Amino acid sequence: MLLDLTSEKLVRLQIEAKDWKDAIRQAAEPLLREKKIKAGYIDEIIRGVEEIGPYIVLTKHVALPHARPEAGALESAIGIATLKTPVVFGNKDNDPVKYMFCLSARDSESHIQALGELTELLGREDFYKLLDRARTAQEVIQYIKNM
User: Fold this and answer.
1) How confident is the model over 71-122, as pLDDT tens digits?
2) pTM to 2 decimal places
3) Which DSSP string do the residues of 39-105 spell out, in sequence order?
4) CA–CA separation, 88 vs 137, rounded Å?
5) Which of 66, 81, 103, 137 is labelled catalytic?
6) CATH architecture of 2-146
7) What contacts 38, CB < 8 A, 6 or more positions away?
8) What are the angstrom distances between the C-alpha of 48 and each of 41, 45, 79, 92?
9) What is the pLDDT of residue 64?
10) 66 is a catalytic site residue
């Protein structure tokens, strides 16, 4: 369940990022602070995008930064971040990115249900409107609780 993998402590709103790498670092910072990932996990996310391309940009304006579990995932978790100014990742169809959902997965299965719920949220226009106007992490978590 999505609420099992996220919390107010993992939400960052209106991040001011200078580029896509900085956006990833800032979006993933709460996961590092809350000991959901090791520092090297963030470096692996960035390395993956550099080597493979912007595969983490899933749909218009949305990225799902993640790396393999062995890269330093300590617990399964999903961080939620919005960017004050969208950044370009190099995905011509879906740039610029404004919403980031940073995933830490301890294995290949335990987070699947939560991702399904996140996918449902990403299909809701009102979810994006909430993310744009939210001033507190509590507002975001309350929306998820009410879905």
Assistant:
1) 999 999 999 999 999 999 999 999 999 999 999 998 877 777 888 889 999 9
2) 0.94
3) HHHHHHHHHHHHHH-STTEEETTEE-----GGGTB-S-EEEEEEEEEEE--S-TTTPSEEEEEEEE-
4) 25
5) 66
6) 3-Layer(aba) Sandwich (3.40)
7) 32, 72, 74
8) 11, 5, 19, 18
9) 96
10) yes
